[in-house]
Amino acid sequence: MADGKTVLITGSTDGVGRCVAGLLAKSGANVLVHGRDRDRGESLVAEISRQGGQARFYQADLSSLAEVRHLAQAIQRDQARLDVLINNAGIGTGGRGQRQTSADGHELRFAVNYLSVFLLTRLLLPLLKASAPGRIVNVSSVGQQIIDFDDVMLTRGYSGVRAYCQSKLAEVMLTFDLAEELKNSNVTATCLHPATYMDTTMVRLDGISPVSSVEDGAAPILHLATSPETEGKTGLYFDRFRASRAHPQTYDIAARARLRALSFELTALEPDPSVNS
Fold this sequence. Notes:
Layout: E1 6-9, H1 15-26, E2 30-35, H2 38-50, E3 54-59, H3 65-78, E4 84-87, H4 108-130, E5 134-139, H5 160-181, E6 187-193, H6 201-205, H7 214-226, E7 236-239, E8 242-244, H8 253-267
Parallel strand pairs: 1-2, 1-4, 2-3, 4-5, 5-6, 6-7
Antiparallel strand pairs: 7-8
Helix pairs in contact: 1-7, 3-4, 4-5
């Protein structure tokens, strides 16, 4: 249950994230709304407040690692606890667009959909552990593609679909890594494909006709984030409500270690020496 819990949802000013934020607020959670657009964020906070809920807006552009750090610092400064982290923010395939880079020079989809998740989660781990029992829920996708470690930034043979699917596979790998690392901390890590082609801005910008509603996607996210049925479950990938198998590379321990090392390097974080690599 969410009553009294503090929950951060990235990318919650639009689409399925906005739906999840509203439902969590109605169930009594203290909702930390994140987005790039202040007007949309403050509009949602006002809407939640009118309905008797509790929310606060945090602005950050996750294509910048500096802004990810500022987001984590603001939450650590303002919040005494963090019970649930839902990493929902992301960008789609971009249709047939050209390769783009982030503020830090990384391939944009890898930066937003994966590196920001890695960095934000790592920075907020102390607060999650101190608030345990806690949950990390990473909103991934059934669209997953193998990571080419010789060209992670896709400087050759780029396509938006390939970039998106690689970033979502990386997110699953991170989830499995975190679950192993946190197994004695009472903080769980799971990930999921919430629904196919939801009616969101991201899907429409990719030129795709929606086939699912945001409510369809919100329900399985909430199931992992708050349901007693999923309490204690960790290191799992769900296709909506059902535990499923992810891409074979996500179970490759050597590949996960390689991605982990690269991620620490790209984010300039130091690995925790108490955790076995």
